[in-house]
Amino acid sequence: MLLTTVVLVLREMLEAALIVSVLLGWSVLHGRSRRWIGVALVTGIAGAAVYAVNAAAVSEWFDYVGMEVVNAAMQFAVCTALLVLAARPAARAATWPMLVAVSLAVVREGFEILLYLSGFVADRGAWSTVALGSALGAGIGISAGALLFYLVVGLRRVRALRVAELLIALFAGNMAAQGVLLLIQADWIPGGVQVWNTAGLLAEDSVLGQLLYALIGYEATPSIWQVTAYAGVFCLLFVFFLRRPTRADGNGSGP
User: Fold this and answer.
1) 249 occurs within a structural domain
2) Nearest to 168 by CA among 11, 18, 12, 14
3) If we measure between CA atoms, which residue out of 211, 216, 220, 215 comes closest to residue 10?
4) pLDDT, tens only, 102-130
5) Coil vs helix vs strand at 154
């Protein structure tokens, strides 16, 4: 149970921590105020708690696929916020797309963690093990996010901007692919043809598989619609970023 908890919490924490760290790095590189990150984290944690409390009711929406639909909507909203961030000229870079993206990412991943932990509230025998596993998973995820942040901002500015842009494009593609998968699971769109199967080479539930899932959205058996969504969004953001100047803009204000 300890290892299961560590892996589950680490997976969810990594997804949120990585997007937080990259967007915070992006904000620093562009001379933006960092105040938005506190607002985003508080909003996200509060939203995750509200979502977890109402999970049973939400699951009954849309003919009992409410959770899949709501989660997909959040993934697409994060993707849209990142598209807006990339499409805006650097001189007018705004903090609100980053605030929206981080808030919803924290809601989505935080909800999964809270929902998992709620299953052990009444089990005092297992609670200490689950709490320890959660602390370990959260600690590793936060540490990985902090490491990525300092790696990005520690590079020369032009290179740091390009690395941050590449990671943001990967995260956006990942969000789009995850949203499509959720709608497939809800039977809102057809599954389509399976493009490849790399489960024999790298299982999704392995440590490396979990890390690649959090970083680039690794899927061992993606459908054609997931691959199309991922590639389309990634390429669109990449084109937007290539059209931006490589130098950071001046200081800006908070949200």
Assistant:
1) no
2) 18
3) 211
4) 999 999 999 999 988 887 776 777 778 88
5) coil
